[in-house]
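A further point concerns the way the authors explain their paired sequence and structure data. An entry of this sort, consisting of the sequence and the corresponding backbone structure tokens, reads as follows:
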Amino acid sequence: MKIAVSGPAATGKTYFIGQLKMFDIVPESARIVNKHYPVLVQNNIEKFRKFVSHLHVYKEQQYVKNVACDRCVIDNLAFTLLGGKGYEEEKERILSLYESKKLTPYNLILYFDVIPVDDPLLRNALNDPLRKNTINIYNYAQHVLEFKDAFFYVAKELGVERQVTVLTAYTTAEHYTLRNQEALQTIQSQRIQQLQTFLDVDYCL
């Protein structure tokens, strides 16, 4: 089973992914690229996005099954689309990888949508050097809306919108906890459904 957790910045994706002990984890590539090339995000955001996308694809290709991705190729394309440069070229590269089966599709994409409220959890999350350089932290609500529009535009272009399940929460610890419980239930339901499909096919054979 291959899942991804997507959504705007500062929505608890990495924390949630860290709780999925039954999966191999593909970490957020933006953090890795920023660690090794800390000035790139400030000096050349387009090149930064390209590095992130290529690294993420490479990381996904290392696993065959039972993998959970902290963001996915759709996230990277959505950020590229919002940046205004290189989207069509990168989209065609991703489509080619899918067509050649060098990249496997997701069984489930959890989209962590949020309703921003003034809360210490959100303020602390936005007080992050990488986020300050990649999103407008002073108009977080706008980022949430723009990213969601871009994400689902890309998902439709890739033909994977049916794999996306949207889970919405207020930006507080209490609501994130409830959202995470719902996300775990959704994953479990998908695992059962996938197993049932496998058993049905095996029985028919």
